[in-house]
Amino acid sequence: MTRALLLLALVPACVGDTGGARVDFTAEVAAVAPVTGGAIAYDDAITGWHVELRTANAVVGPVYLWSGKPLGDLQRDADQFAYGFLRGEVVSQVAVDLIAASGQRVPLGPGDGLAGESLSGELWLAPPLGDLAPHTFEIAGRATKGAIAIDFHGALTIDDSIVDESTGATAFERRKVRAIPLGADIVDGGTLTIRADARAWLAGADFGALSPSDPAIPVELAPGDPVFAQWLYQVRQARGPWALAWTAP
Fold this sequence. Notes:
9% of the residues lie in helices and 40% in strands. By secondary structure, the protein is mainly beta.
């Protein structure tokens, strides 16, 4: 997608008139993974690798709230109107350092919509606008298993360089994380919280598939390697990397 088209996609859409009173609210991103010694550390129950992330950056937004209930993974790539009507929207982006901001809430921006029940949300992992950040995601760290230790670094932006659009898929669709459960009554003056958990970004990644050419140089994750593929898959999941919560005023 061209930069011009992306800018058009981020222009506030008109929230349709469904009878609810118009409301304004605020949105924020909460970095929920605990940090110890400057790293997000966890053990992957699937692969047995111990992972320490020393860089975990993400550009978050926009986000849209829908009246409909999530219907499962088969609906993830369905037309958005399968989730009912648009209940609210926040069309801004924010860059979040999930290590520096651990346990904190980073403002995303104002939102508006229509009062009433929202059962699901849709988060866009859009390319950063302007000089906000060079990539939508950036990670760096070390994975260990027994006597094996692999340092790695990676940058990820979901664009046509990693989505084969000849298959019918588009980067524009692939960057939408749909059917994130919510279940809240949207009212004026409330706060939408997007909970971001970097521990889920690489869940199931088998670092043993990487082949470091020099143990002193971090492996650069790139399209075509299994860890990058798992990373791309995981950040698009509606449960694990992301969660939504609503706080009434």
